[in-house]
Every structure is written in structure tokens, then in C-alpha cells.
Design brief:
Keywords: Hydrolase, Magnesium. Its EC number is 3.6.1.-. GO terms for molecular function: nucleoside diphosphate phosphatase activity; ribonucleoside triphosphate phosphatase activity; thiamine diphosphate phosphatase activity. By secondary structure, the protein is α+β, with helices and mostly antiparallel strands. The protein has one domain: Alpha-Beta Complex (Nucleoside Triphosphate Pyrophosphohydrolase). The protein is built from three helices and seven strands, in the order E-E-E-E-H-E-E-E-H-H. Strands 1, 2, 3, 4, 5, 6 and 7 form a seven-stranded mixed sheet that branches. A hairpin with a 2-residue loop joins strand 2 and strand 3.
Length: about 160
């Protein structure tokens, strides 16, 4: 790098689950630096896992449900400035839809998670100021519009799994 050159941009890769049951969507309520916020079960992709595997893990850790991904709803970019530090962060989110399986109420939820909620689209639309990210609403709206892509669209080379 030459002097004055910028550091390479590295977005944070996250996975999220859009889960509908009986016309309601599974969200989590969590403590953030901006107060209590609503989010999809979501989190950072970890080394050694496919995006679908990461999404399965995040749903279990954050909502205590088994999850079976059935389709990719979308791939989203979101830029965010952290309130406390002013850090400029870009997230690359892969949102999957699928079925919630068994609930494991004895499981301790991830740190910061207060509870899980099943909310109607109207309830979610009514409180965008409570969403952790604008992608909560966008991915739900894309899902409701019928946007689905085959899971095979996201290919993970075997080298990642070693």
C-alpha cells in the first residue's frame, strides 16, 4: 500500500432467518447499544460453516428452535454507524427462509437476547424504529412478495469446511 492508501474494505458477513408460522414471523428482542431492538434470528457467519449451516446455528442459539432452510430470500448490503464508537460498518446479509422445527425452551438464549416473539406483518411494519436493521422489514417484505432462490445459488467450496 502506498502512503495514504485506504485499508481494504471488508464487510461483515451475516446470515438471517425469515421464519413464518401461521401468518406470524419469528423475531428476537435483544439488548443493543441503542436499547431493546427487534431482529431476525441472525448473526455472523463463522469459519468452517456454510451460510445455511450458520443460519441453522444462529436460529438455535438465538431463538432455541431447530431450523430447516428451504430457500434464499435475498442477499443484502447495509451500512451502519455504531452509536458508541462512530465506527462505519457494512453488513453483507444472506437471508434464508424455511421451517421452524422443534422448540427447545430449556436452552439458554445467546447473551443479550431477552425473548422471542411471533409478530404479524402489520405489527412488524408498525415499529420500524425498533428494528435493529432496515433489513428486518426488507427481508420480510421480499419473502411476502414471493422472492425465493434455490439454496444451490450459494455454493461453498469444500476448502471452507476443512
Amino acid at each position: 500500500m502506498t502512503s495514504g492508501a485506504r485499508e481494504r474494505w471488508k464487510p461483515h458477513v451475516t446470515v438471517a432467518a425469515v421464519i413464518e408460522r401461521d401468518g406470524r414471523f419469528l423475531l428476537i428482542e435483544e439488548h443493543t447499544s441503542d436499547g431493546l431492538k427487534l431482529n431476525n434470528p441472525a448473526g455472523h457467519l463463522e469459519p468452517g460453516e456454510t451460510p445455511a449451516q450458520g443460519c441453522i446455528r444462529e436460529v438455535l442459539e438465538e431463538a432455541a428452535y431447530d431450523f430447516t432452510p428451504e430457500a434464499l430470500v435475498g442477499v443484502y448490503l447495509n451500512r451502519f454507524t455504531k452509536t458508541r464508537t462512530g465506527e462505519d460498518v457494512t453488513y453483507l446479509r444472506l437471508a434464508f427462509c424455511g421451517r421452524a422445527g422443534a422448540h427447545h425452551p430449556w436452552r439458554e438464549l445467546d447473551s443479550g437476547i431477552v425473548r422471542t416473539l411471533w409478530l404479524s406483518p402489520e405489527e412488524i411494519r408498525a415499529c420500524p424504529e425498533r428494528h435493529r436493521s432496515p433489513l428486518v422489514l426488507q427481508s420480510m417484505e421480499d419473502y411476502l412478495a414471493g422472492q425465493r432462490f434455490a439454496l444451490a445459488l450459494v455454493h461453498t467450496h469444500p476448502s471452507v469446511l476443512r
